[in-house]
Amino acid sequence: MRRASGNSPRPTKTSTAFSTLFTAQQVRDHLGKAGGIAAAIEWCKKTAVTKVYVEAFRDGYQADRDALLDAQERFRTPGSKSPVA
User: Fold this and answer.
1) Environment class of residue 36 by beta-carbon count within 10 Å: exposed (0-12), middle (13-18) or buried (19+)?
2) pLDDT in the model for residue 77
3) pLDDT at 11 over 70
4) DSSP state of 64
5) Which sequence spans correspond to the domains of the chain?
6) Fewer Cβ atoms within 10 A, N terminus or C terminus of the chain?
7) CA distance to 33, 62, 77, 82, per residue, from 29 (Å)
8) What are the φ/ψ torsions at residue 65 (nearest 5 degrees)?
């Protein structure tokens, strides 16, 4: 396929972005406990995860608000390199 004059192909990304999801139950069982959030951040760094999604609700369970806010703050801290969505 020929491109019209002046059109260039889209630039390609040089790296791959990985994301992960922490369920509401994982917030309760891991992120809401001492050391759990630090371990999660470390795991994200080791596995090249660059975006984190944290659920507030699943299967009738509502994650604790304080645990959600703490996870949000910790993942957004400079140096964690895992933005939370």
Assistant:
1) middle
2) 80
3) no
4) P
5) 18-76
6) N
7) 7, 13, 22, 20
8) -60, -45
Supply the DSSP symbol for 5. Answer: T
pLDDT of residue 85: 61
- The identity of residue 59, as a single letter, is D
In contact, 53 and 19? CB cutoff 8 Å: yes
Calculate mean pLDDT across residues 18-36: 94
Which amino acid is residue 29, in one-letter code?
A: D
| CA trace torsion 32, 37, 40, 41 (10° rounding) | 150
Report yes or no: 35 and 68 within 8 Å, Cβ to Cβ.
no
Whether 55 and 23 have beta carbons less than 8 Å apart is answered as yes
pTM: 0.73
